[in-house]
Amino acid sequence: MEADQIRSFFAKDIYAMETTGIEILEIKDNYAKTHLSVSDKHRNADNVVMGGCIYTLADFTFALAANCGNNLTTTLSSNIVFNSPAPNNELFAETELVKSGRTVGTYLVKVTDEKERLIATVTCVGFRKA
Question: For an engineered disulfide with 23, which of 35, 43, 57, 71 has Cβ 3.0 to 4.6 Å away?
Answer without folding.
Answer: 35
